[in-house]
Amino acid sequence: MPKWLDNAVFYEIYPQSFLDTNADGIGDLQGIINKLDYIRELGFNALWINPCFASPFGDAGYDVSDYCMVAPRYGTNEDLKRLFAEAHSRGIHVLLDLVPGHTSVEHPWFRESMKPEENAYTHRYVWTDSIWESPEGMGCLRGMSQRDGSCAVNFFSNQPALNYGYYEITRPWQQSPEDEGPRATLEAMKSVMRFWLGLGCDGFRVDMAASLVKNDPEGKGTIALWQKIRAFLNEEYPEAAMVSEWGEPDKSLLGGFHMDFLLHFGPSHYNDLFRCDHPYFSDSGLGDASAFVAKYQESRKKAGKEGLICIPSGNHDMFRIAKFLNEEQRKLAFTFLLTMPGAPFVYYGDEIGMRYVEGLTSVEGGYERTGSRSPMQWDDSINAGFSCASAEKLYIAQDPAADRPNVKAQMADSGSQYHQVKTLIALRQAHSALHNRSDMRFVCDGAPGQALAYERLCDEEKLLVVINPNGKAASLDYAGTLGQPVYTVGGTAVQENGRIIAAPVSAGIYRI
Ligand code: NOJ
Asked: From the DSSP assignment, how many helices (H) and strands (E) are in the chain?
């Protein structure tokens, strides 16, 4: 387990939308390099960069056509190497986005695989043996070439599924993970990992990590596959950090990932907190965190002490948190996000409360996700400081609101969301009880009208976090003694006759 994960706090960058330094209307690697000081000053010490590889961009780069080449619109491989070096010199680690489940239809492997003559790539993708048979339970590509078969798709129709084999084989064309084709796919993906790790990247966020082995309802085949990758990394790159887009930590961590994200889909109840009709962090008192807490506790138990369950502020696939929560409420949500165990992930722009931009036409396969991918708002100059291109040239339009938040204004306002995020990250670093692997114990599970309270514990210190998003005061039983506050927002909790009373719409971190 890489030591740096003990206190890693991640910032997710969607490269298209971060900073455009060559006035072509789209962000680039140099833009990320230019903003490394900004990122470091906020306190982040790790990055996840969404796919920045050659691609026809039918799905924002999650449709790779060359795994080992930076997309020219972002720069060159040399620029990415420079980014690694510049980041490292500031104490920032960099994860790239690995998309092992599928490629673009334009990938040379797929072009070869479509050929009717048997070749080295015939079994690189999941093909049936007749154009008339579809792979069960999956979409497919058919009739695109003279190969007599249908090719499974992993996500959109332009993303053919790479072949890692089937866990349960029910048709003659399905292969076992041990067959030559699937083994070659795995070796090819290891080579991709070697390539970037060799150039200085610090690990990967893995796209759709649960999707690799097909017909694998309990994930056993896919877990076994990731265990092979774990063995390879242990051998060759033991310091590489791996975080999965899986959403089931008990499975992914067993597969050898260090971290797993909770997602806006899957069993975690993540949405109950931030994104539903009555999110827990809203002030209606109707929100309910208890199902989240129950599932989280269960996952933590199964994941063990080492594995990190990562709760993101958002990502490029979900609505911005600001669509559901106002600034006051977001401050409570951030108190939670930055005091929970696991490595926190903050989506670019969430640190200033960037909004979901309603009504945008889909760009690069974004569909409703497009509104969460609008260009970063740096200041009040043209295009909010994102780009010098004319506004029509921006690849996604800016948030048109006159009062859209921006970094410059928030830096100048000590009460801003920006400063809150900065303060909380600094506190997290300063208090070892708040580090990623330090222990935790729930005291109150945030049932409707109730506070969410949990202890964070390590040998050196003990802290209690109390969050009451409700518009009414909340009280909770607590056997310990509430000590001095380390941080509060919206009011300070008090203890009376053993009970803690938390002010309406408040959060705090206390010594105990
Ligand atoms: C998950 C990614 O986060 C999303 O943006 C992408 O569209 C799909 N996987 C397919 O790769």
From this structure: 12, 20
Question: Does 208 sit in the ligand 1 pocket, CB within 6 Å?
Answer: yes
Q: Are 503 and 473 in contact (CB under 8 A)?
A: yes
Ligand 1 in contact with 336 (CB < 6 A)?
A: no
Q: How many A from CA of 473 to the centre of ligand 1? A: 41
- DSSP three-state, residue 276: coil
Q: Which of 207, 211, 265, 363 to mutate to test the pocket of ligand 1 (most atoms within 8 A of CB)?
A: 207
Bridge-based pairing of strands 140-141 and 151-152 is antiparallel
Q: If we measure between CA atoms, which residue out of 440, 130, 183, 469 comes closest to residue 296?
A: 440
Residue having the nearest C-alpha atom to atom 11 of ligand 1: 62
Among 88, 95, 174, smallest CA distance to 138 is for 174
Residue 102 CA, closest ligand 1 atom number: 11
Q: What is the mean pLDDT of residues 474-502?
A: 97
Nearest alpha carbon, ligand 1 atom 2: 207
List alpha helices for 200-269, DSSP H.
Answer: 220-236, 249-252
Residue 58 neighbours by CB distance under 10 Å: 18
Listed in sequence order, the residues at least 6 apart from 356 whose beta carbon sits closer than 8 Å to its beta carbon are 319, 320, 322, 323, 371, 372
Instruction: Classify residue 364 as left (phi > 0), alpha (psi -120 to 50) or beta.
Output: left
The pLDDT of residue 70 is 99
DSSP run (H or E) holding 400 = none
Nearest CA to ligand 1 atom 3: 317
246 lines ligand 1 (CB under 6 A): no
**H or E, element range at 261:** strand 259-261
pLDDT value at residue 306: 85
The number of residues making up the chain comes to: 512
As a whole number of angstroms, the distance between CA 166 and CA 181 comes to 12
Q: 461 CA to middle of ligand 1, Å?
A: 40
Place of tokens 């070439």: 145
Q: Which residue type, as a one-letter code, is found at position 85?
A: A
Over residues 208-218, the pLDDT tens digits come to 999 999 999 99
* C-beta of residue 62 within 8 angstroms of C-beta of residue 155: yes
Judge whether 25 and 75 are in contact, CB under 8 Å: no
Q: Which amino acid is at 370?
A: T
**Tens digits of residue pLDDT in 30-56:** 999 999 999 999 999 999 999 999 999
Ligand 1 centroid from CA 44, angstroms: 24
CA angle 398–403–405, rounded 5-degree value: 70
Q: How many CB atoms lie within 10 A of CB 226?
A: 26
Strands (E), 20-117: 46-49, 53-54, 66-70, 93-98
Contact between 467 and 451 under an 8 Å Cβ cutoff? The reply is: yes
How many angstroms separate the CA atoms of 89 and 196, rounded?
A: 18
pLDDT digits (tens, 9 = 90+) for 204-240: 999 999 999 999 999 999 999 999 999 999 999 999 9
